[in-house]
C-alpha cells in the first residue's frame, strides 16, 4: 500500500511502503501529539482506529471505537468509521446501519454510498445493493470500485446482461490503464 499520511500539520511521507518502520514511529508520534493537543480529535482517533485494526490490536480498536462514539455518536465521520470497524470485525448488520447513517447525513458522499452498497452485498441483499450502487455511480460515473460492486449485485440478482456489460466496461478500463 502506497499513500500519503498526514496528521494535522505533520506530513508523514509519500511512500510509507518503503520505510514502514520509520513511518510507523512517526505516525505514532504524530497521533500521540494530536491526541495530547485534543483528546477528542475525531480525525486522529479514526487514524488510530485504522492502525489498530491493521495491527489486529482488537483491544485498542474497541477502545478507539467506543471513544469516538462517546464523543459524537451521530456524526457522519464517526458513523463512517464505525462502518469500517463493524465491517472489518464481521458484523454486517451493524456495518450497514452505520453506513446508512453516514450516507443519510451526507447524501453526496460517494464513499458512504459505496459502503452501503458493499454492506448490502455482504448481506446478500443484491437488489438493494444495485439501487444504492446506481445512486453512487450517478455521483462518480465510471468509478471502478462501484462498478465492481454493481457487477456483483447484478450478477446475483439475475441481471446477467447488466453484469456482463459492466464486466466488459471494467476490462476496457483496465486495458486503457495498461497502455
Overview of the molecule:
The chain is built from nine helices and two strands, in the order ββααααααααα. It has 179 residues and is mainly alpha-helical. Helix 3 runs antiparallel to helix 4 and helix 6 packs antiparallel against helix 7. The longest helix is centred in the N-terminal third of the chain and has 18 residues. The N terminus is likely disordered.
Which characteristics define this entry?
about 180 residues, globular, 2 strands, single chain, disordered N terminus
Task: Give a short overview.
It is built from 9 helices and 2 strands; from the N terminus they run E-E-H-H-H-H-H-H-H-H-H. With 179 residues, it is mainly alpha-helical. Helix 3 packs antiparallel against helix 4.
What is the helix tally?
9
Question: What's the mean pLDDT score?
Answer: 88
Q: Note the beta-strand portion.
A: under 5%
Number of strands: 2
Runs in which pLDDT lies below 50 for 5 or more consecutive residues are 1-18
